[in-house]
Amino acid sequence: MYFPLIKHTTPKRLRQLERNVGSMKYRVWRAKVLERDDNTCQWSGCTQKEGLEIHHIKRWANNLHLRYNVFNGITLCKEHHQSIFNREATYEVVFLKTVIRNDELLQQRKGKSGTDVQDTKGLKGESSVDIPKPPGGDIQGSPASG
Ligand SMILES: [Zn+2]
Q1: The model's pTM
Q2: How far is the CA of 50 from the centre of ligand 1 (A)?
Q3: Residue 136 pLDDT
């Protein structure tokens, strides 16, 4: 088969086209990745929260079915995104492990917090929190040393 349109399309142009065509899908995907990664660069030791970009762990041009898979995206700051340019494959495994772990953490957060705050607030009136004392009576002040 012959695809005249694609023949003259550079990868960069393809990427631009894709982002326009699928912009809504792309934005949803991007938002999910950012949420899962806590809006922080996932580079080991980096805590950058601004200027974030989403890196496709596996090049989407070669893995069309993964393009909007949240496990194929990872949050990186601009600096680290650029630092892996042309070395993407080297980081596939590390990044994949990172996003799987992040997803587990996200599921835990969602599962445990449920409806959030509102649940118990206001139900117990004004009673202050009762901290049980440890058995064995009060512990006296530290013995005078010397
Ligand atoms: Zn970074």
Answers
A1: 0.63
A2: 9
A3: 58
